[in-house]
Amino acid sequence: MTLLNKSFPLNATVAVPAVGFGTYLIHQDVSASAVRAAIEKGYRHIDTAQVYQNEKGVGEGIRAGIAACGLSRDDIFVTTKLWPGNAAWGEQPKNRQQALAAFAESLDLLGLDDVDLYLIHSPHGGTQRLAQWQALLDLKQDGRARSIGVSNFNIKHIEQIAEAGLALPEANQIELHPWSQKPALLAFMAQHGIAPIAYSSLAPLSTWRVDPGQDSAKTGETASDAGIFGKLAAKYGVSEAQLLLRWGVQSGYAVLPKSLNPERMRENINLGGFEIDNSDMALLRTLDRGDGLAWSVGDPTLID
Predict the structure, then answer these.
(1) How many CB atoms lie within 10 A of CB 50?
(2) Which of 43, 52, 199, 253 is catalytic?
(3) Backbone angles phi, psi at 186, to 5 degrees
(4) Which residue of 36, 118, 126, 261 has the lowest C-beta tally within 10 Å?
(5) What is the spatial distance between Cα 115 and Cα 144, in angstroms, rounded to a whole number?
(6) pLDDT in tens, 58-105
(7) Cβ contacts of 248 within 8 Å, gap of 6 or more
(8) What pLDDT score does 295 carry?
(9) What is the band of 214 on the pLDDT scale with cuts at 50, 70, 90?
(10) CB–CB of 177/204 below 8 Å?
(11) Which residues make Cβ contacts (< 8 Å) with residue 296, sequence separation at least 6?
């Protein structure tokens, strides 16, 4: 049983599906076939980003999936993200007009008239953060982005938006799993009506990012208590991935699993046939270790 009908509201007219398909590290050459396959398996949220360099293939896959399944554009929730530029990496952070131009380029690559959610990918924009956020407000105002938000922002970053007298983000996509639960940030977001969307939900798995070129901050020491996920998965008769994804949805946020394996695609969205009981949810809350590990350079929510 899938969770096709479950979603989390972002604003009065937009809700994000509980389970989406992530495309980070999916190469342009295979992104179209992967996205089409995901839609055929039942995914109705496709997540990409400017910096993933696969928006063209993702757009092709969305159109192919829509055609193959007899769907319409309105049936597919599409997220993409602005890469803000990072001065520490020798990049020039984008100003307001450059952010608008980057969105137009993403829209052209995707082959879409609008997106359902547009995010600032990280807080690396520094002094241009507010200008970038103003660009997103422009996009929502003119209807090209149905909802807008940020990714990897911490409380201070969001407070800067509030202090400028600007409308707050509707979503914050952050690394969330039992090893990185960010309770203070989530409480702040709940207080201000900002929906959490999780990435790297499967980071505790031994199979997560094991291929060459898939760097992270995960270490053998980090993984020392991973056996508990297998024990709980066996208790519920599901895979460890299903357990971790169900934990995220039960915790109140959308998740974005990624796989190129058709059976795992199907498995990762098949989360509706069980529920983690309260005692096990409490046990999983004790595994929090603080910072995320998806970025090899460190959790981006920690930057100034």
Answers:
(1) 18
(2) 52
(3) -65, -40
(4) 261
(5) 6
(6) 999 999 999 999 999 999 999 999 999 998 889 999 999 999 999 999
(7) 176, 177, 198, 201, 254, 255
(8) 84
(9) low
(10) yes
(11) 215, 216, 217
Least confident residue range of 62-76, 147-161, 218-232: 218-232
pLDDT at 213: 66
Tokens of 133: 């956020």
Quickly tell me which residue has 């970038």 as its tokens.
132
3-state secondary structure the chain: CCCCCCEEECCCCCEEECECEECCCCCHHHHHHHHHHHHHHCCCEEECCHHHCCHHHHHHHHHHHHHHHCCCHHHCEEEEEECCCCHHHCCCCCCHHHHHHHHHHHHHHHCCCCECEEEECCHHHHHHHHHHHHHHHHHHHCCCECCEEEECCCHHHHHHHHHCCCCCCCEEEEECECCECCHHHHHHHHHCCCEEEEECCCCCCCCCCCCCCCCCCCCCCCCCCCHHHHHHHHHHCCCHHHHHHHHHHHHCCEECCCCCCHHHHHHHHCCCCCCCCHHHHHHHHCCCCCCCCCCCCCCHHHCC
CA distance 77 to 20: 9
Burial pattern 260-279, b for ≥16 Cβ within 10 A else e, equals eeeebbbbbbbbbeeebeee
The pair of three-digit structure tokens given for residue 265, joined into one six-digit string: 């695609």
Among this protein's residues, is 43 annotated catalytic?
Answer: no
Residue 98: both structure tokens together: 């450059």
Q: What pairing do the DSSP bridges indicate for beta strands 7-9 and 15-17?
A: antiparallel
Question: Whose CA is closest to 181, among 38, 283, 40, 261?
Answer: 283
